[in-house]
Amino acid sequence: MTRLQNKVEAAPMGRRGTPEEMANVYAFLASDEASYLDYGKDGLQNKDYQQVK
Fold first, then answer.
1. If 0-12 CB within 10 Å is exposed, 13-18 middle and 19+ buried, where does residue 8 land?
2. Under a CB-based contact definition with an 8 Å cutoff, are residues 37 and 47 in contact?
3. What is the chain's Cα-based Rg?
4. What is the spatial distance between Cα 2 and Cα 50, in angstroms, rounded to a whole number?
5. How much is the pLDDT for 48?
6. Whole-structure pTM over 0.85, yes or no?
7. Coil, helix or strand at residue 38
8. b/e burial code for range 17-48 (CB count within 10 A of at least 16 → b)
9. Range of the domain at 36
10. Which residues pair with 38 in a beta bridge?
11. Contact, 39 vs 31, CB < 8 A?
12. Fewer beta carbons below 10 Å: N end or C end of the chain?
């Protein structure tokens, strides 16, 4: 089994995202709706959650 197959099987959905699904993610991240999120040292995080920790 390849590394990519291992990662795909470990994904919550058990499959890779379709191009349309990935386009939706990128469109969201580029929108004003994503201003609530930031990228901490562990990846995408919620700003309010970081303040509560």
1. middle
2. yes
3. 14
4. 35
5. 53
6. no
7. strand
8. eeeeeeeeeeeeeeeeeeeeeeeeeeeeeeee
9. 3-52
10. 45
11. no
12. C
Residue type, 31: S
How many domains does the chain divide into?
Answer: 1
Q: What is the pLDDT along the chain (53 residues), one digit of tens a residue?
A: 788 888 888 888 888 889 999 999 899 888 988 877 766 666 655 555 444 44
Task: Name the strand (E) or helix (H) holding 39.
Answer: strand 37-40
Q: Is 19 helix (H, G, I), strand (E, B) or coil?
A: helix
Two tokens, residue 16: 């890779």
The pair of structure tokens assigned to 53 is 């920790």
- What pLDDT does 21 receive? 92
